[in-house]
Every structure is written in C-alpha cells, then in structure tokens.
Design brief:
This protein is α+β, with helices and mostly antiparallel strands and 417 residues long. 32% of the residues lie in helices and 19% in strands.
Length: 417
C-alpha cells in the first residue's frame, strides 16, 4: 500500500516523463510518488509558481514540429530469424535481436532493467549481458532518472543511442533535447498507461507467495508456444517456475480496465500517428484474421511483432535488418484495429471510455490511496464471474478480429464528429 506521507503537490496531468525537471530554475522539482503511488514530478517549498514547468509540459507536443513522422506508417509482421532470440521477449524477439546488432556496432541501448524491488529503471547498455537484462516487457511504470542527460552526453561524444520506452518517454526525450538527431533512434510500444508500482510489487508477492527478495526473475506476459496462451511468469530464487493465465490475472484485469492507470494516461494521444518515435513495435493482434497471412505458423509460433516504421531514419535502419529479422508487409489498418490506443485516447474511445468513466474505476482509484492490495483484490476482483472470463478467452480469434475491425471503422467515424 502507498502509505508514505505526501508533503509535495503533484504537477497537474503528469505522466512521469521527467523532461520538465530541466526547465526549473529554482530546484523546486523532483521525481517521487503521489498519493496513489504513481511516479510523477513533485513540487517542493522552493516553488515560486513561475509556471515554467507547466508551460513546458503543455507545449511538449511542439516537438512534432521538428520530427518528420508519417501519418500512416509502413507496417510489417516481424520476428527474429535467430530461434533462441525469437523466444525472448513477449512478441517475436525484436528487442534482443535489434539491440544486440546495435551494440555490436559500438553503440548503446537505453532501456529499463528491474532493480531488486522489481521497479524498472533506465540504464545505458553496451554489452550483451546488459541487453539481456533489458529484454522482456516490464508491465509497470518505469523510472527515467537522468537517462535523458546521459543520452545527450553519449550523442555529443559521437556515439549512437537506441532508446526504447513508452510514448510519453519518447516525447519527453525529444522535449529535453529540443531536436531530432541522426545519432538517435527511438522506439515506442503501444501503451494504455503503466500501472502503479506498489500494486505490481504486491501482485508479484501474491502470485508467488514469496517476498520480493525471494523472486529471481519476472517475465511479464509470456506466450506459451504450444497452447498459444499468454501467462504471467515468475521464477523464484529456488528455481520454481510460477505461472497463471494472463486473462484471469488480477493484475492484467486491473490494468486492462484502467483501474491502476492514472487519469493523465487515459487522456494520452501519444500513440496516434504521427507519433514521436522512429519505430513502434508490439504484439500483432489478430494477424491474418481478415486478410490471410499465408506463412507457415511454425515459423512464428513463438511470437510475432507488429513493426511500424514512422520515419526515413527508421526505413534506413530497417533496410539493414534483412539478415536478422523475418518481415512481411501488412496494412496499417490491420495493425491499428487491434490497438485501441492508435485510434483515440481511452477517454474518447467508444469501448474504453466506459471503463475509464466507470464508478468502479473511480472507487478503485480513490482506494488506491489508503487500502492494501489484498483488500482491493477481494472487493474488486474475487466476485468476477470466472465462467464469463473463460468463455471470453475461448472466442474464436478470427471472430474477434472482425469485431475489432468493425470497432476501428466506427471509431474513425466518431473521431470526425
């Protein structure tokens, strides 16, 4: 439970990108936790209410004026040609494959690793061992720290940087730098908002029945190649592997219904093209459900990524990956149909807004301030109809694909109204 006393006031609508710390002339800003436990910029008693930070935050979208990105990105289904790397990560092993190629050329990778309490914190990696720690999706709010200033120094020293993060973090990086750079390649993932850290930590303890110090590895949502089901997977310090089906996980259910996501993330439009990043990659949901994907399933049973190229810089690097990743051109409509965050903010999406604006979410968000994980789990999840969940999980993927495509076109119409 988030029980620490909060003496500082959070900046309104903060997503925790940290870029605003650069503009404060009074040392009145620092990163910390708000009442619910979200990682945000906080003001201290030295604040003079000059407005520099809030003005900077409000104008972060100005970075798009110097970023040449496509309104309709080039779209591919992709996975690693290296079988071992294909099985790392959550959707085809692209991160490990591309990151290792990147450091082989003497460059560095900026991405988060877990600390001892399973809080993702950004580091610069230039070895295979460090990249291995950065691999696998980390489904919780990460801490940027001073990674932007580190990246600026690396670039000024003549090296290239691959930055992988949430859309708001990519935008924050460009806002901090004030320019695009030929030595910087950025990747964002599809994001509905990152859940609060303490809820994630307590979930891991609940799943494993262990203290955090007794958990060795956390893999997030992993694809089982044989069943094609996704599971939440942990390994204890004793080597015990503990899994549960993702669709019935308390953590995933809370996340997908925005219970553990802050309001600023629900209003976010940073996933909608043109975006700030050079690439977007993530799961390619419902691939082939409408337009056939005539590739032997055995080739990609360990996962398939959706790879979006937003810039000429992305195209140039993509052309160097022929020997490393398998790619098949697809339509952006197919990719966007399975990702509601590509269509609108959650607050305006015809399906997602019912979760965002629900009384259930309002109650949950309020209780995040003072209730423990076990109490929240009991009151908000244990009455869920297991039969309904299992039935939903068994719906034919092709049928789901048609439903999501229909919703995509309806949302496009609503966006124009």
């Amino acid at each position: 439970m988030n029980c620490q006393a909060r003496t500082k006031s959070p900046i309104d609508h903060c997503v925790g990108c940290t870029a605003c710390l650069k503009v404060c002339k009074h040392n009145a800003l620092s990163m910390g936790k708000d009442e619910q436990g979200f990682y945000v910029a906080l003001k201290n008693e030295q604040c003079t209410s000059c407005g520099d930070c809030t003005s900077f935050c409000a104008h972060r979208n100005d970075v798009k004026s110097f970023l040449k990105r496509r309104k309709k990105p080039k779209t591919y289904a992709a996975w690693s040609k290296n079988n071992a790397l294909h099985q790392t990560g959550n959707s085809g092993g692209l991160f490990s494959t591309i990151a290792l190629k990147w450091i082989e050329e003497g460059n560095v990778v900026a991405a988060p690793v877990y600390n001892e309490e399973f809080v993702p914190q950004y580091i610069l990696a230039n070895t295979a061992e460090m990249v291995e720690k950065q691999a696998w999706s980390k489904f919780v709010q990460s801490e940027v720290g001073d990674i932007y200033s580190q990246i600026q120094k690396v670039i000024s020293n003549g090296k290239k940087v691959l930055f992988v993060g949430a859309p708001c973090q990519v935008k924050g990086l460009y806002a901090y730098l004030g320019e695009d750079h030929s030595a910087l390649l950025t990747v964002q993932f599809p994001c509905i908002g990152m859940p609060v850290q303490w809820f994630y930590q307590d979930y891991l303890k609940d799943l494993t029945g262990k203290n955090l110090s007794e958990i060795r590895e956390v893999y997030g949502e992993v694809l089982d190649a044989e069943t094609q089901k996704r599971v939440m997977k942990c390994v204890t310090s004793q080597g015990e592997v503990i899994c549960e089906a993702a669709h019935s996980s308390v953590y995933v259910k809370a996340w997908n219904t925005f219970l553990t996501v802050n309001d600023a993330c629900c209003r976010c439009t940073d996933n909608i093209a043109p975006v700030c990043a050079d690439f977007t990659w993530g799961n390619f949901w419902y691939l082939g459900s409408i337009k056939p994907f005539r590739v032997d399933f055995e080739k990609y049973k360990h996962g398939c990524s959706m790879l979006l190229c937003h810039s000429e810089k992305a195209d140039s690097f993509f052309s160097e990956l022929y020997n490393d990743i398998e790619t098949y051109e697809r339509s952006y409509t197919e990719a966007a149909s399975g990702h509601t965050m590509f269509q609108s903010s959650a607050t305006k999406h015809l399906l997602m807004k019912k979760y965002v604006n629900s009384e259930r979410r309002k109650n949950f968000q309020n209780q995040l301030r003072y209730r423990k994980y076990d109490a929240l789990k009991q009151d908000f999840f244990e009455k869920t109809d297991a039969a309904s969940l299992n039935a939903a999980a068994k719906v034919n993927p092709k049928f789901k694909g048609y439903i999501w495509r229909m919703l995509y076109y309806v949302q496009k119409v609503l966006n124009r109204l």
